[in-house]
Amino acid sequence: MLSPLISELIDALRILPGVGPKSAQRMALHLLERQRPGGLRLTKALESALHRVEHCRDCRMLTEQAVCRLCQDGSRDDGALCVVESPMDVIALEQSGCFRGRYFVLLGRLSPLDGIGPQELGLPQLISRLRDQPSITELIIATNATVEGEATAHYLREATRALPLTVSRIGHGVPMGGELEFVDGNTLTHALSGRRPVP
Amino acid sequence: MLSPLISELIDALRILPGVGPKSAQRMALHLLERQRPGGLRLTKALESALHRVEHCRDCRMLTEQAVCRLCQDGSRDDGALCVVESPMDVIALEQSGCFRGRYFVLLGRLSPLDGIGPQELGLPQLISRLRDQPSITELIIATNATVEGEATAHYLREATRALPLTVSRIGHGVPMGGELEFVDGNTLTHALSGRRPVP
Ligand SMILES: [Zn+2]
Ligand SMILES: [Zn+2]
């Protein structure tokens, strides 16, 4: 009963996470009925971000800058590097305020069946960085507590064994099978302070 | 900590109804990390809809066509016209399948303090239509059961008193399948005062 352009807008909104048919409908009509300036702003913001946001040269965080703010920030601790799966994890850790070092974002986790190996996760780049930057003395592996996250952590531990590093795995607090981005800041703080060396 | 374009995208997503800071963040990163083709599709759909969707000449429903599908549909009953506040109401009624007549969408409700009077709601256009189209014999007022919706219904009833029409107001009260204890006091009051004899 709706016109083609409205139906297409509703369908397109459904690619947003957590948006079902009913809320997509509500969003589309809200934009068209009451929020055209906001809708235009969203169009422009989407277009700019999709065309210009890439990954930080150093840490692979999402950014439109060559080097992201976190890597540029001179006040951070160069001694510790925390490896996470996704940009959402960086945000979660930053919002908890429990970590002041540097990051490396894998943009995934090892998943051979999906064709995601060390290369896709930038692991050669990470290993070179750990080797070439002697200021880094501690590596914190904060991949998710899932099977694939654990496999990735294990791989990383083995691949860095020859380097003079303290390697730890983020520990207590993250529920097994849970994903970092859905964990509250308190739990994250606890998990980070309770990290254990990986033997 | 996020780059300007990502922050702006997160802010822009918050104009969507029901989207708070946390889910806007998740949406933005999801689009940038995993759903760029979907994001581009959404950009195009938004742009087209915002530029081309206007209102149906006859019923004021949202559509990019001069006359909407519902008004064009020759199989519908020309005898009954249902007046609603918003396009969402048309969709709700259509999805219930309980009405096969025509619609008129006010795109609001009387609200003098906000400068919304009969003119803004297209009431002169509606009255002309009711006068000029003798096929219409029944007017159903389906504005919301709010103070403003009731005031709008009252105005409409008075404005159409001279016309040879059956005018009805949709019933309000405890929703079917609803339990009394979960219905708000206002609804209960209304339901009680609107009680009808059981034959
Ligand atoms: Zn960076
Ligand atoms: Zn129409």
Automatic annotation (TrEMBL), chains A, B:
Stretches assigned to the Toprim domain: 79-175
Record GO biological process: DNA recombination; DNA repair
GO molecular function, one term: zinc ion binding
InterPro entries documented for this protein: DNA_Rcmb_RecR, Rcmb_RecR, Rcmb_RecR_Znf, TOPRIM_dom, TOPRIM_RecR
Transit peptide as UniProt keyword: no
Pfam family, one: RecR_C
Protein name: Recombination protein RecR
Organism: Paraperlucidibaca baekdonensis
